[in-house]
Amino acid sequence: MNAPRIHYAYFHGFRSSPNAKKGNHLRAVLADDGIELLLPDLNQPSFASLSVGAMLAHLDAQHEREGRPIWRLIGSSLGGWLAARWAERHPEHVDSLVLLCPAFDIKNRWPKMFPSGVFEAWRRDGAMDTHDAAGKPARLHFAFYEEASRERQWPHVSSPVTVIHGTRDETVPIEGSRTWVRDQENATLIEVDDTHDLLASMNVIERAVRERFGLSTE
Predict the structure, then answer these.
(1) Residue 126 predicted with pLDDT over 80
(2) pTM recorded for the entire structure
């Protein structure tokens, strides 16, 4: 019997893209081992019209295109939550995950994340002036928040998971990861002295990816 095919993917965060620094750094690192790290574009159908359902459908379509392999997933921020959500939906196709400051609980976090009055104005107006991953002006529709709020805020993942989270993360506070890891059967939390971008912790991330995915750490 043939061994299952293992594919690797990195899910970028909100207001990011396949050009994400961490994703491309890890793609180069894994390429040295002969591993291709896929970086799907999660701005589906577009950043202004962002839709969780469209993101998950895009990932489902990629899964089909790749021949329904077994996945090892890395997800950053919003991409971390999406990776956990996709793994919850397809447990038989996810071998393991590494989540970087995963953005759980959008429903309760986002109203508190904006300056006073901004979230209410976004709800009232139906769209908010912001910018996309390239820094171009964009109006993000409020329907994204409404749809995300209807999804599972704390996905249950049966696959082994390593979570890396910065103790100084002010965008997605580490308490969410602490809570989530306690409720999973096979999850490990690595706390680092870093902010949300984790760019000062790339060595920790590289080692965690190698250890979680059973790759050489030499």
Answers:
(1) yes
(2) 0.96
